[in-house]
Amino acid sequence: MLKSISNIFKIPDLKKKILYTALILILYRLGSFIPVPGINASALEQFLGAGSKTGGNLFGMFDLFVGGNLGRASVFALGIMPYITTSIVIQLLGGVIPFFERLKKEGAEGQKKIAQYTRYGTVFISAFNAIGISVFLQSGVEGAVPHPGPLFLFTSVITLVTGVMLIMWLGEQITEHGIGNGISLIIFAGIIARYPQGFIQMFAMVKTGAMSIFMAVLVLLVMVFVTAAVVLVTEGVRKIPVQYAKRIVGRKVYGGQSTHIPLKVNTAGVIPIIFAQAILMFPQTIATFFKDSDFMNFVVQLLTPGAWLYTVLYVLLIVFFAYFYTAMVMNPIEMAENMKKYGGFIPGRKPGKRTSDYINGVLVRITLPGALFFSFVAVLPEFMSSWANLPFYFGGTGLIIIVGVALDTLQQIESHLVMRHYEGFMKKGRLRSRRG
Description:
Layout: H1 2-8, H2 12-31, H3 41-48, H4 51-54, H5 58-65, H6 81-93, H7 98-104, H8 108-140, H9 150-177, H10 182-192, H11 195-208, H12 213-235, E1 237-244, E2 247-249, E3 252-254, E4 258-264, H13 271-287, H14 294-302, H15 308-329, H16 332-341, E5 344-345, H17 353-387, H18 396-419
Antiparallel strand pairs: 1-4, 1-5, 2-3
Helix pairs in contact: 2-9, 2-10, 6-8, 7-8, 8-9, 9-10, 10-18, 12-17, 12-18, 13-14, 13-15, 15-17, 16-17, 17-18
């Protein structure tokens, strides 16, 4: 491992890409501490309270993804979430609207148009979110806006939307000139920025006697074990063997080779957890506007993280969205038709409907264990907070994103090393990215 790390800096091009990526991430973190004019950050942070640490409400969950920028009232308070939301929506539309489906099949030109529509959608969603947050801060959070009025609304909306555009541009620069996926790395940087302070707090608790040394060691072991398990499931692939028949075109012979279709154990990734959290946290967010309503307070008690009804609904929603998203992005019928078109077949299965039914059956079987495991990871933060009194958020969407982005980035670095005849991170086999 140390030899591979030293080899990274022996390749000028790779060294330049990594340093460029690090510079952009540093600029992003510096911008995270520039405040929005006219907002009292201390009042906002007090309102968010424990939600910022544990994701206990929709604002707290959002603040987790943006690396605490919302709690600091930063110009990057909206983070990159509007871009992610737009990308997910367009990806889902690609499975139901023929126009977007055609764009996905048009290659590089289609991807350019999709990227352009994604930017337009990001501006629209950013403006909508900025208006909603600005109005809410002005009227719903006491002391957050010392001087409310139209001028504050105009200034804050322009500042927040500009912050999203700048983050999106920084992410695109990393993707184009750096290493890894820029948007994912910005989310990664925002989430992991909380960890050092959390470990410092944990060690301070050990020092003061609030947490025993045995418990601290046990917590660290659980973290290592869970992280390794997430890596294992994220990398898990079910390989379906495919055989291509020989074809003679003119004087050349094509086909005849054996390959496989890699089906991910968790095709949907972190998307089901995000959707499930958004749905379950929505009643709590609405309840902040009706603090005197007994009915809303009763609903909040039932849907508070840690309550049995919340946990059951959480797991069921994650499993449902895992199957829903997998069905949207994976099309067994199209896969079977493409194989048949190029003379491919699965041994023991007839081309056409039998092949698509077999692929669909495999997807149904492998999606369930992946969804159940990620459901466990999603409820892990509540377990860690109550069992070990952990002072920071560990598990859930944050851990899955960190593992996935780290694997993607390491895979790209390893590709550069192997291409230039250096030893990669893996001595046996190859490190696979989430995209397979």
